[in-house]
Amino acid sequence: MKFKKIVFLLFLSFSALGFAQEMLLSPLSKISLLTVGTGDDLYSKFGHSAFRIQDPTIGVDRIYDYGGFDFDPPGFYVKFARGKLNFKMSGYKTTSFIEAYKQENRWVKEQTLNLSQVERNEIFDFLQNNYREENRMYLYDFLFDNCATKIPEILKNDLGDKLKFDYSHIEEPFTFRQLIHQSLDENAWATFGIDLALGSIIDRKATPWEHQFLPKYVSKQMPNTTINGEAFVTKEEMLVEEKPMDNKVVFFLTPLFWLILTMISVVAITYLDHKKKKRSRWLDFSLFLITGAAGLLIFFLWFMTDHVFTKANFNLLWAFPLNLVLAFILMKSKTPPAWIKEYLWVLLAGIFITGVLWIFKIQIFSPLIIFFLVALAIRYLFLLQTFKHSKSPTII
């Protein structure tokens, strides 16, 4: 089932609930954490978290989560790109929630929480109040304010010092980038794009608490938490099992294939250009256009958005926005500009500094980018050698 259809189903099911704003949970009630496994699409790669409230006495079995958003508001994609998109708390029937993830073949695990009737009502009251129209919106942040981070935040705020988090199960804290990669295939376009767009900010170690920006770490933390000295999770069960799927990856559709092919092509064409004393301007145009466009995107995400995790992105050292201008200059002009040699040295220095930052782990770059950087370095060196001569080479 496609994403928009699932969102529509969940919101449609919610509209039929007719929530009462004033309820008290009975002694038979329980509150549990639901954790959903990863899906095929990028938006679902990191899983999902939600509260489940059950009370057979008053006929309640509903889900509260913080993963809702609206496709329709003006400037949706611009707001999303700039980090100004509001997410909202959603509520719907548990049966609709379970069925939606069955359709996506994603497992759903339930962990029943050890809460007194008073504590359950305090959390329920908070969720009910938070669901009010004037309270349900919040400014989404992928790392620090999302559907997963809301769970421990609400529990901590409502239960206070009664709740003790034991982090001993996290033997070696991961960086944010490592945590993100745990849910992704290294040889996938999504992973490659994420490593290109996210900066060195995410290469710091996450604290044990910050690991819980991912739903699976919230789920792992709950059994390692106590309330008043007792286990916080009283029961754990799988509500939906994931069916085995044979997801074969077609190698020629992966970034690794295309980047290796690019490197081989650039090396081969550059060698032929050198032998024939020619310059394939279409190749230079393509390389400078691609790196310039990538640099412009990185510049936008770094300096013109509210995203914290796209700051200090040193991919800008090799993906240089001014390459966009040079792409058209080299395409149209037979005589290169006077400053071209100095500019090429700057580009080569950028590639070298990228390697230094990588070695010292100031920023971890996608390992796949090595092939493209080799191709760029070889082409830049060829252009330097070519433009040393006073006569312009033949242009093809």
Structural category is: alpha+beta
pLDDT average, as an integer? 89
Strand percent estimate: 15-25%
Order of helices and strands: HEEEHEHEHEHEHHHEEEHEHHHHE
Keywords:
396 residues; disordered N terminus; single chain; elongated; seven-stranded antiparallel sheet
Describe the structure.
It is a single chain. The chain has 396 residues and is α+β, with helices and mostly antiparallel strands. The strands form 3 sheets. The chain has a 7-stranded antiparallel beta sheet, with helices on both faces. A 3-stranded antiparallel beta sheet has the order 7-8-9, with helices on one face. 31% of the residues are buried. The longest helix has 23 residues, at 281-303. The chain has helices at 3-15, 76-82, 94-103, 117-131, 150-159, 176-181, 189-197, 215-221, 255-276, 281-303, 323-332, 340-359, 369-387, and strands spanning 30-36, 48-55, 60-68, 86-93, 108-113, 137-139, 163-165, 225-227, 230-231, 233-240, 278-279, 394-395. The protein is elongated and about 85 Å long.
How do the strands and helices of this protein lay out in sequence?
Blueprint: H1 3-15, E1 30-36, E2 48-55, E3 60-68, H2 76-82, E4 86-93, H3 94-103, E5 108-113, H4 117-131, E6 137-139, H5 150-159, E7 163-165, H6 176-181, H7 189-197, H8 215-221, E8 225-227, E9 230-231, E10 233-240, H9 255-276, E11 278-279, H10 281-303, H11 323-332, H12 340-359, H13 369-387, E12 394-395
Parallel strand pairs: 11-12
Antiparallel strand pairs: 1-2, 1-5, 2-3, 3-4, 4-6, 5-10, 7-8, 8-9
Can you give me a brief rundown of this structure?
The chain is of the alpha+beta class. It is 43% helix and 15% strand. Helix 4 packs across helix 5 (150-159), helix 10 (281-303) runs antiparallel to helix 11 and helix 12 (340-359) packs antiparallel against helix 13.
